[in-house]
Amino acid sequence: MAGAHNLSKDFFELIKDIGESKSKQEEDKIIQREIEVLKGSMPAPNIPWKKMKEFLVRLLYVEMLGHDGSFGYIHAVNLTSSRVMIEKRTGYLAVSLMLHQDHDLILLLIANIQRDMGSSNFLEVSAALTAVMKLVNADTAPAILDNLMPLFNHSNELIRKKAVMAAHAFHSKSPSSVAHLDASFRKCLCDKDPGVMGASLHLLFDMAKQSPDDFKDLVPSYVAILRQIVDHRLPKDYDYHRMPAPWIQIKILQCLALGGADE
After folding, report:
1. What is the mean pLDDT of the segment spanning 93-113?
2. Alpha-carbon torsion 131, 135, 137, 139, what sign?
C-alpha cells in the first residue's frame, strides 16, 4: 500500500479486526468502538494534518460499512485546505464520497475549490475538479463556472478532460448554466487528446438531444473522427481486444443517429 509507512498501528489493527470478524454483529461492535475513538480524537486541538488524514481514512471505513460518520465531515472539508498534496487529495476524496450535492457543508467547500482550480499545480486542480463533478449543484454552479472556463485550454490534457466532464455535470443539473459555452465544447471536440475529445462527445450528445438541429453541423466532424479511429490513428491505449476505441465509436454513432433522426 502506497504510503502505508505513514499509517499508525491503530489503523492496521482496525483493518485486521474488521477482516477477522466472524459476524455482522462483531463487525458492528468494532465499528462502534472506532466511532467513539474518532469522536474523541478528531476534535482535539492542533492535530497534525498527517494524523487527520489517517482519521479521515478510518472514517471512510466507518461509512463504507454502513455507519454514520457525519460528525467528521467538517474535518474533511478543512483538510482540503492543506498545502500538502496527499492530504489535500484525501480531503477532496473524503468529501466526494461522504457528502451529497445539497449538503450544508458544500458552501464552506466552495472557496477552497475556487482557489485550487486556479492553482499552478495541476494535481490540485485535478483534485478540485473531482469534487466539482460530484458535489456542485444548480445553485452553486454559477460560483464555479468562471473558474472552470479557462481550464478548457489548460496545458494538461487530464485537466481539460476533467473540465469537460465537470461541464457535463453542470449541464445534467442545470442545462441553461452552460448553454453559452457551446463554442468551447465544440473546440474540445477537436482537441488533440482523444480523452478530451471523447469526453466532449458525451456532453455534445446530451446537448443535441435537447436541440438536435443546432448540432447537425457537427456531422462532418463526427465522420472525420470516426475515420481516424477506424484507420487506427488513435493511440493503442484506446484499443479493446484489437478493436480501435469501441466506446468512442459507439458514442459517435449515437451522435450521428441523433443528427440524422429527421432526415
Report:
1. 94
2. negative
